[in-house]
Amino acid sequence: MIQNIALLVISFLAVVYAGCDNACSGHGVCGEDGVCQCYDNWGLGLAHYSGDCSQRTCPYEIAWVDTPDKLGNRHKYAECANRGICDRDSGECQCFPGYEGRGCGRTVCPNDCSGHGYCSYIENMPYKVVPQDYQRSEFIFQDPYTFGYFQWDKTKTRGCVCDPQYGDVDCSKRICPFATDIMDHRDDLTRAQKYQVQTLKFITDAKQSLEGQTFALTFKSRLNETFTTIPIVWTLKTGFHNMILDIEYALQGLPNNVIDNVVVQGKVDTAESGIGIGAATINITFTGNNVQGPQNLITVRSYECKDGCTPKISGLTLVPKSQNVTELQLSDFNSYECGRRGKCDYASGLCQCFAGYTGAACNVITSLV
Questions:
Q1: Are residue 134 and residue 215 in the same domain, yes or no?
Q2: Pairwise CA distance, residues 356 & 369, whole Å
Q3: In a 3-state reduction of DSSP, which class is residue 276?
Q4: How high is the pLDDT of residue 37?
């Protein structure tokens, strides 16, 4: 009798387990209706029906391309973002060329930026070159990252941001020097040629005297090289003329002769005395051959930079949003790669000048026809 009962129980259990295929492969729970309720990330087939829960599902990301739903919505979540094949054994996406990530959710930067740049998401790509480029109105600066990007490929599409002296979509080419086209004449030759003039405006905080404090200036060239001057001493009351000369020497002393000649002039703004303890306007005129045509706006380093920081400066306490850099005068000079009188060797970054021209940027005439 006992033996018969045991056989009956075993038969009953066999019927129960036979209700779910392969006992859900150990990756799910068998329901009373004989259908497996799979654990997370387990299923069967492309449709991921429960089946016997024997296959892994892969990560989901916003689809790069998909068909619209009945409301016309696109870019829904899809396995491997529709840019890869799921390995059902490992649960990992095998992304197609040009895509990477856990769910193939982001693009690969071309040629890994050739080792001369870094990969950046589209929403983080810089809008301009220097902080002053974000200026919207006087004394107001616009941070580049406040230009919110909310398109569907946010955090998905990436591109290269190249290192200094490198360019092209994959940062594979060396950039050649820029200069004016020496043969590009002006319409009115009787008028003196104009150089670019940038104006720096300072209004210091009235709470303290800044005599003897230090600041610095940063210049970014057309080759995206960034250079910062040595510390400059603020001597508005005790030696303003000397401070003007110090600014001129500091700019011309930047490495690689990046600014070969510049003229600095300035004045004390007594009209601003009610706002601050001292105010000044400084005009910087770019007259050198290496800075012909429009240049990036100079950046003032007025924050404190202590030990371990370069250059070491004490900083200036300025009236909020009073520091302003603008272009006072446009240049009559233009700015072309190799002066438009030569070809750029993108392997070396050197100009191959046409016959009759020479110089780093082919902006010197060697013969007249």
A1: no
A2: 9
A3: coil
A4: 92
Query: Could you tell me the two tokens for 58?
Result: 């892969």
H or E element in which residue 18 lies: helix 2-18
Using the CB atoms, write b or e for 43-65: b if 16+ within 10 Å. bbeeebebbbbbbbbbbbbbbbe
pLDDT on residue 261: 95
pLDDT at 121 over 90: yes
- Residue that is last in its domain, among 69, 100, 131: 100
Amino acid, single-letter form, for residue 82: N
- The 10 Å Cβ neighbour count of residue 146 is 8
Which residue, among 2, 34, 38, has the nearest Cα to 15 in the 3D structure? 34
pTM above 0.85, yes or no: no
| Six token digits for residue 264 | 């600095």
Task: Evaluate whether 113 touches 171 at the Cβ level (below 8 Å).
Answer: yes
Q: What total of structural domains would you count in the chain? A: 5
Q: What percent of the chain has pLDDT over 70?
A: 83
Confidence category of residue 162, pLDDT binned at 50, 70, 90: very high
Report how far residue 195's alpha carbon sits from residue 28's, in angstroms, rounded to the nearest whole number: 76
Q: Which two tokens stand for residue 15?
A: 């019927």
Q: Tokens 């030696």 identify what position?
A: 239
pLDDT-based confidence at residue 196 (cuts at 50, 70, 90): very high
Is the link from the previous residue into 311 a cis peptide, with omega within 30 of 0? yes
- Nearest alpha carbon to residue 20 among 2, 10, 5, 32: 32
Q: Are residues 86 and 113 both part of a single domain?
A: no
